[in-house]
Amino acid sequence: MCWCSSCPQGAAVCVCLHPNAKDTVTDPVLRSGQTWRTMMPTLRTLLFLGLWHSTRRSLASAPQFGNQPKKIAVVGAGIGGSAAAYYLRQEFGPGVQIDVFEPGEIGGRLSTVRMGDHEYEVGGAIIHPLNLHMKHFVDTLGIPPREAVSSKMAIFDGEQLIFEESDWFFINMLRLLWRYGFNMIRLQLWVESILDKFMRIYQYQQFGYSFTSVDRLLHAMGGEHFLSLKNQTLQEAMISEGFSQTFINDLVEPVTRVNYGQNVRIHGFVGAVALAGAGPGLWAVDGGNKRVCSGLLYNSKSVVIKERVTSVSLKLRPSKSGAAGSFYEVNSVGEGGASHSLYDIVIIATPLHSGMSDISFSGFSPSVPSHFPGRFHQTVSTLVHGRLNVSFLGCSSSEFRVSEVLTTASERSLSSLNALDPVHVPPGYRRPPGDQQKVWKVFSSEPLTQQQLQSMFLSWDSKSETRWLAYPSYSALQRKPPPFILHERVYYLNALEWAASAMEMSAISARNVALLAHHRWHQQSGKVDQEDLHMRLRGEL
């Protein structure tokens, strides 16, 4: 805690770097045994952490605007839609009715499955320690992080483990240096430089700035560098930075496979996000990450409507002054039949892509597409409560000590194999040894056959399979990302996941869309698409 008089009271980090300042920023959950993924945040990152906690911007607390919207619709109650409801309440204040349409479970792609006496994470599982929106959410909602359980990682090439973490840091470093030279150190520096630029978005959003397109948002964070990353493959980007092909094949591709089920031909920006997600300090929410969604909806005092939205139409209605006003009619269907209601603003927080949505748009000029180009990648999450056949990994029972197995492209049947802990870790819990019966999560691109299960497991008593269209199929040759603005007051939150899909990316997009909706409603163009924000704000600080 900073105690110097020059900083805001209670600042987590001394922004003025006073000699009496005390830095108590800590990660809520720390993993052990993750030497190869160690990276240290830069000074600028720490300053942004302090800025985030000490500078509490809220447009809702600013002088009240007279002409506020009366009703806002949010379509989808995953982390994006839930965060949008939360930020819309902050921006527009208590007088606005916020309706959230969700026919399924709250949480969307954040989900749990019960096996035996416990629930296990089957959807989005990890949160990075520098994901400041997610950290802010759990702090605001009073939800504790999940108890940490130490783990060790290995990499499987389809025949044997080509790397296995040791309990000893020195041994891990020697193995990596012997096989890959200084590629690991170079990787840490490369990812850190990208994170350093990425962290700018929190400063921009704290000062209320928003962006009308994905490319403008990325450019504000990382300039031409981020745009060029999005337009080349991760492999091309890393080769140009001097990384060896062996290092990319052995260590980088397993990370993209576990995080996105895809190889190093994904575009460079999402690849960098994947590599950042392999760092230390990863954490999760006690009781399941989906608790954040339900908590945000409760905190925002939103009305959850358990109906599926079928269409959005533009309607003109006369006003008291005689001039016609425009509204958006949201049509939906639920157990009670079809219904409709008029809204001033509509936020679409569900993917508008083939196989993901069947929402139609009518009465718009120019027309709003029901489906944008591109497809979503299928990842099958199979939970198995059983005893692992460690010989499948080329090991014997006596030597198998890992709980997280990543795979290279040579292994075609699975992307990763992880031992799971319950979403609520009970007191005294200890994960069973690797060769004993417990819950394993297998990521694969297709459902596992009975033969594949029999080769991986000696025995099992229960199994659960979830097929996710969890994230886009990323390509450096993909078309321009969808826009944030579909119509004058209709916004598309999921546009940003075409740059990278993650809980924090959805939260960033939710904040951006809420700010956009506010600024455009009140015609505050000075807060939209401003250039050179980094230099301008650094001058102000």
Automatic annotation (TrEMBL):
<keyword id="KW-0458">Lysosome</keyword>
<dbReference type="Pfam" id="PF07156">
    <property type="entry name" value="Prenylcys_lyase"/>
</dbReference>
<dbReference type="InterPro" id="IPR036188">
    <property type="entry name" value="FAD/NAD-bd_sf"/>
</dbReference>
<protein>
    <recommendedName>
        <fullName>Prenylcysteine oxidase 1</fullName>
        <ecNumber>1.8.3.5</ecNumber>
    </recommendedName>
</protein>
<dbReference type="InterPro" id="IPR017046">
    <property type="entry name" value="Prenylcysteine_Oxase1"/>
</dbReference>
<dbReference type="GO" id="GO:0001735">
    <property type="term" value="F:prenylcysteine oxidase activity"/>
</dbReference>
<keyword id="KW-0274">FAD</keyword>
<keyword id="KW-0285">Flavoprotein</keyword>
<feature type="domain" description="Prenylcysteine lyase">
    <location>
        <begin position="163"/>
        <end position="530"/>
    </location>
</feature>
<keyword id="KW-0560">Oxidoreductase</keyword>
<comment type="similarity">
    <text>Belongs to the prenylcysteine oxidase family.</text>
</comment>
<dbReference type="GO" id="GO:0005764">
    <property type="term" value="C:lysosome"/>
</dbReference>
<keyword id="KW-0732">Signal</keyword>
<dbReference type="GO" id="GO:0030328">
    <property type="term" value="P:prenylcysteine catabolic process"/>
</dbReference>
<comment type="function">
    <text>Prenylcysteine oxidase that cleaves the thioether bond of prenyl-L-cysteines, such as farnesylcysteine and geranylgeranylcysteine. Only active against free prenylcysteines and not prenylcysteine residues within prenylated proteins or peptides. Involved in the final step in the degradation of prenylated proteins, by degrading prenylcysteines after the protein has been degraded.</text>
</comment>
<dbReference type="GO" id="GO:0030327">
    <property type="term" value="P:prenylated protein catabolic process"/>
</dbReference>
<dbReference type="Pfam" id="PF13450">
    <property type="entry name" value="NAD_binding_8"/>
</dbReference>
<keyword id="KW-0325">Glycoprotein</keyword>
<dbReference type="InterPro" id="IPR010795">
    <property type="entry name" value="Prenylcys_lyase"/>
</dbReference>
